[in-house]
Structures are given as C-alpha cells and as structure tokens.
Amino acid sequence: MAAKSEPATSSPGEILMPFDPDYCPFTAAWRVIGGKWKGVLWWRLSLGIGRFLQLQRSVPQISKKVLAQELRELERDGIVARRDIDGAVPTVEYSLTPHGQSLAPVIGALCAWGRAHRERATQPAP
C-alpha cells in the first residue's frame, strides 16, 4: 500500500481533500496521549514511579479500573512496557519504552504551553 502524501492546498487555509481522521498526524498523536490521565501517567512513569499501587497512590483521583485501562492502552500503543514480578506478593511494574521516552519533548512543550496559558488566563483582561 502506497503512503499518502500531504493534502494539496491551493491557498492558505484551503484544503482540497476532505478531513480524514485516520490520516491526520495530530489525531494519531492525540489518540495515544490525549485524555484525562495519560499525560499524568506518562509524567509519573518518567519520574520512575512504576508499580501499579505507586501509580494509584500518586494519582488518587483515578480509579483502579480506569488506571488499568489507561495503562493497557499505553502498552498497546508501545508507550509503556509491563513487567510481571513473581514473588511472595506478585507485582506489576510499568516503565516507559524508548518510544514512550521519545514523547519527552512533546510533553515538555505541552507543559510549557499549559503553564503560559494558565498564567495568561489568571491575569485580568486589559
């Protein structure tokens, strides 16, 4: 199957092809990192918090069910690796894959933008 090329434009803002969410690079990225908890979980994992219970305690607002679901989706997308640790008490540990680590500049840029936006939103209107 041949790769699609960027849609042709005739003038700024005018796209000749209809929007295709399966082709859109922003949509592809947002499907992986978007949502209420995925960015927070990525950040916690980047800090070395990797055991399921550690993650749950570090984000008490997330239910066990939703945490497991979000981690499964991040694992499916190649962002997170899951490791089962056998022992007296079986443990599950998560870590960022190299693909997940490659999100560092993206998440960093989003955080910088969010910080500036939050400051802008709290300032009185001119």
Describe it.
The chain has six helices and four strands. The protein is of the alpha+beta class and 126 residues long. It has a single domain (25-122), classed as Orthogonal Bundle (Arc Repressor Mutant, subunit A). The strands form two sheets. It has a two-stranded antiparallel sheet. The chain is globular and about 65 Å long. It starts with 8 loop residues before the first strand and ends with a helix.
Write a concise synopsis of the structure shown.
The chain has 126 residues and is of the alpha+beta class. It has helices spanning 25-33, 38-46, 52-58, 64-76, 98-101, 104-122; strands at 9-11, 14-15, 80-85, 91-96.
Q: Which structural class matches the secondary elements? A: alpha+beta
Looking at the structure, the CATH topology is: Arc Repressor Mutant, subunit A
Q: Mind telling me the CATH superfamily name?
A: Winged helix-like DNA-binding domain superfamily/Winged helix DNA-binding domain
CATH class: Mainly Alpha
Uncertain stretches of 5 or more adjacent residues: none
What is the average of the pLDDT values? 88
Which features would summarize this protein structure in a list?
Arc Repressor Mutant, subunit A, alpha+beta, two-stranded antiparallel sheet, 126 residues, 6 helices
In terms of topology, how is this protein built?
Layout: E1 9-11, E2 14-15, H1 25-33, H2 38-46, H3 52-58, H4 64-76, E3 80-85, E4 91-96, H5 98-101, H6 104-122
